[in-house]
Amino acid sequence: MVSLALSLVASSMVVRSVQVLQRAKADLARSETEYALAGAHLQAAAVIVRSGIAGPYHWTATTSVGWVEALAEPEAEKLSLDAASSLDDGLLNRFGVADPARLRLALAEAAATDEAPDIGALDPAPLWRACAASLLSRYGEAQTYTFAPRSEPGMGPKPASWHIGEAWRIRITTAAGWRDDRIVRFTGDARHPAAVVVRRLSRGVGEAGQCDRVLAEVSSA
After folding, report:
1. Rounded CA separation 164/213 (Å)
2. Cα separation of 36 and 62, whole Å?
3. Which segments in the chain show pLDDT lower than 50?
4. Quick one: pLDDT at residue 208?
5. pLDDT per residue as tens digits for the range 159-203
């Protein structure tokens, strides 16, 4: 009996040790990913400053955790929250929104505050969650939406365009599905070109190109 008890204790200690090791490995992997994402954001800010063409942009880059996808959008060109709170049922239905009236109320409530809401979290529809942040923004100034195709940023020996004071959304996505989505404001400082206003880190399945399609449809509607 004593031997059996000791065996059970030893087994439980081994299991616990394995669990602790697994958690430690997971924590290390996440830390490495967050470090790589932070570096990719700094690189993305530099790319925007050096680009000779207008955004929005979409490109790929390499990091210590492999290739990442970068998306950069100027926030001022998006719908304001006030304008978004008046979107009609047909347009919201294109994003899979089942209860447009409830979403309009949530948008109106968000517009009445000074905070930058998580736009995608205002409705559970997958397409809305994936694409809404490209349509509207707390820092948006447009009353009507015009779709601008995402392009590769221009590169080369051009004068820097520092975008001082401008708010941009920059999202970096890894092959493993980690997304570091930030609203930043450009500073004009070469050492710290962009200051983070809002940051959201998540992990999940990407939108697989559906956003461009639905945003173009919304723009032409």
Report:
1. 31
2. 10
3. none
4. 62
5. 678 999 999 999 999 999 999 999 999 999 988 999 999 999 998
